[in-house]
Design goal:
Layout lengths: L13 H34 L4 H23 L3 E5 L8 H10 L2 E5 L6 H19 L14 H7 L2
Parallel strand pairs: 1-2
């Protein structure tokens, strides 16, 4: 919704002040009513969740799992990293990538869907556990998408 601000730069004589004050009060009432009615739609949207959100999340996770398994099979494995405005890859990231033959895909400010990224990385983390045991866990960056969730559920 939008908020409008009115600035009046006119100079009024003493006799005009009362007339313009009544207009201001009337305008203030209309503005209040506008805000009141526009807020009902916002509250209604917040209280009525979209049932398709969970369905979309499930599809996203299923696709991520399938994509990760396909990448493992094709040996084109990558781990997703959420970056920022400035790239955050380090030399230790490159060392990890070479040692385990895994790419690191860094997203900038706006990455993939979080559900997709976490699900994809969790499949890759399971693969790393299966292939290399738990030694890789001490070498990977702790801010890889979904790493903390994976460690807490697979300790």
């Amino acid at each position: 919704f939008a908020i409008f601000v009115f600035v009046n730069t006119e100079v009024f004589s003493q006799t005009d002040v009362g007339k313009h004050y009544r207009k201001f009060v009337t305008m203030k009432k209309y503005f209040f009513l506008l805000l009141l009615f526009s807020s009902f739609g916002t509250v209604a949207q917040l209280s009525d969740p979209n049932p398709k959100v969970e369905e979309i999340a499930k599809v996203s996770i299923q696709k991520a799992n399938a994509d990760a398994e396909k990448d493992i099979k094709n040996k084109t494995i990558s781990i997703f990293l959420q970056g920022g405005i400035v790239p955050t890859k380090t030399n230790s990231d490159l060392d990890f990538s070479k040692k385990y033959s895994i790419g690191i895909t860094e997203f900038g400010c706006v990455g993939l869907d979080r559900n997709y990224s976490v699900a994809y990385n969790k499949v890759i983390f399971k693969y790393l556990d299966r292939e290399f045991g738990k030694t890789w866990r001490s070498e990977i960056r702790k801010d890889m998408i979904g790493f903390t969730e994976y460690i807490t559920s697979n300790n």
